[in-house]
TrEMBL record:
Its EC number is 6.3.4.19. The keyword NAD does not apply. ATP binds at S53, G54, G55, A56, D57, S58. Belongs to the tRNA(Ile)-lysidine synthase family. This is tRNA(Ile)-lysidine synthase. Keywords: ATP-binding, Cytoplasm, Ligase, Nucleotide-binding, tRNA processing. One of its GO terms (cellular component) is cytoplasm. Ligates lysine onto the cytidine present at position 34 of the AUA codon-specific tRNA(Ile) that contains the anticodon CAU, in an ATP-dependent manner. Cytidine is converted to lysidine, thus changing the amino acid specificity of the tRNA from methionine to isoleucine. The N-terminal region contains the highly conserved SGGXDS motif, predicted to be a P-loop motif involved in ATP binding. GO terms for biological process: tRNA modification. The gene is tilS. InterPro entries: Rossmann-like_a/b/a_fold, TilS/TtcA_N, tRNA_Ile_lys_synt, tRNA_Ile_lys_synt_N, tRNA_Ile_lys_synt_subst-bd. It comes from Streptomyces sviceus (strain ATCC 29083 / DSM 924 / JCM 4929 / NBRC 13980 / NCIMB 11184 / NRRL 5439 / UC 5370).
Length: 350
């Protein structure tokens, strides 16, 4: 008799992602040996880490990685991040380390972070967590880090983006593959096609202990209110299937946003003059979605922090092109200034 359907589902999701990781590795150069190794030394097997909080989603992910990785010649390790936001969080992190080792993961580490206040508590915790995961991946030489985000998390992310009114990229939710500078494909989310209940069921039938973070039910947090009040209200009003529909919207939006980004990159050179300045007439001729992407990128290149650059900022700059009435310079985050000068748009540090 095969495994429980929930266990089979999480294992299949992880197996597919591990195959993708191996394909990427072989496509890059097929080598994973360090420069110090001699010609007859076998390189260590590539390492894949799982980021684990001890919750149902990440424990299910850890169990599936522990089962699947050795079959593909990969090492499976784990890292848990102690945010220090609750009493006893250090002890809980130690418990998670023990649980991951019991699953057979090695190496496993706990890393403590200090959560700042930039952008609100949820954003600050997320920034600290990813910085710690990046550091752990570099330290361990991992080729990828698996994250336990589910289809339910994706639906919540889409709704939060919709509420912010920040455009199609916001509606595209979390990418199945993402990363930062120098590691563009580090993070993998195998469970984006699975619901939260499947992960929890997989833990239950495997007798895996699960820790439920009280922050996930704390109404002080926006995502928690959305999870326990907003989405259930939507399902009550619109019927079941809302989560699946929102996740599908995320994928369609991502495809559209990627296409527009490509168009904007290709069009960018054609709207600059010989001196490299943006020509307002040529920008005006572009579709708004393409033009605004070019303006946003120009602002970022001039020094505006991407995370502080909102749609309203770009709309103001856009009016220098589409609604020109002799208005003055526009101040953007990062002390960047945008102004129109003789048919050219100049965006630079003020």
């Amino acid at each position: 008799m095969g495994p429980h359907p929930a266990v089979a589902a999480i294992r299949l999701a992880v197996r597919r992602v591990l195959h993708d990781i191996l394909n990427d590795l072989h496509a890059s150069d097929g080598r994973h040996a360090s420069a110090e190794q001699g010609p007859h030394e076998r390189p260590p097997s590539p390492l894949v880490l799982v980021a684990c909080s001890g919750g149902a989603d990440s424990m299910a992910l850890a169990s599936a990685l522990a089962f699947e990785a050795p079959k593909l010649g990969l090492r499976a390790g784990g890292v848990t991040v102690d945010h220090g936001l609750q009493p006893g969080s250090d002890l809980r992190a130690e418990e998670v380390v023990l649980r991951l080792r019991e699953l057979g993961l090695d190496p496993v580490e706990s890393t403590a972070v200090t959560v700042g206040r930039e952008g609100g508590p949820e954003a600050a915790a997320r920034d600290a967590r990813y910085a710690a995961l990046d550091a752990a991946a570099e330290r361990q030489g991992a080729i990828a880090v698996l994250l336990g985000h589910t289809r339910d998390d994706q639906a919540e992310t889409v709704l939060l983006g919709l509420a912010r009114g920040s455009g199609i990229r916001s509606l595209s939710g979390m990418a199945a593959v993402s990363g930062g500078p120098g590691a563009a494909r580090r993070y993998r989310r195998p469970f984006l096609g699975l619901d939260r209940q499947t992960a929890r069921k997989a833990c239950m039938v495997q007798s895996l202990p699960v820790w439920d973070d009280p922050h996930n039910t704390d109404p002080a947090y926006t995502r928690s209110r959305l999870r326990h009040e907003g989405l259930p209200a939507l399902e009550k009003a619109l019927g079941k299937g809302v989560v699946e529909a929102l996740a599908r919207t995320a994928q369609l939006s991502r495809d559209d946003a990627d296409a527009l980004d490509t168009w904007a990159r290709q069009a960018e050179a054609s709207v600059r003059d010989a001196a490299g300045l943006l020509e307002c007439a040529k920008l005006y001729a572009l579709p708004p979605a393409v033009r605004r992407r070019i303006l946003r990128q120009a602002a970022i290149e001039a020094g505006a922090p991407a995370g502080s650059l909102f749609a309203r900022h770009i709309e103001e700059v856009d009016r220098l092109i589409t609604g020109w009435r002799g208005q003055g310079a526009i101040n953007l985050p990062g002390k960047v200034v945008a102004q129109r000068q003789g048919g050219r748009l100049v965006i630079r540090q003020g």
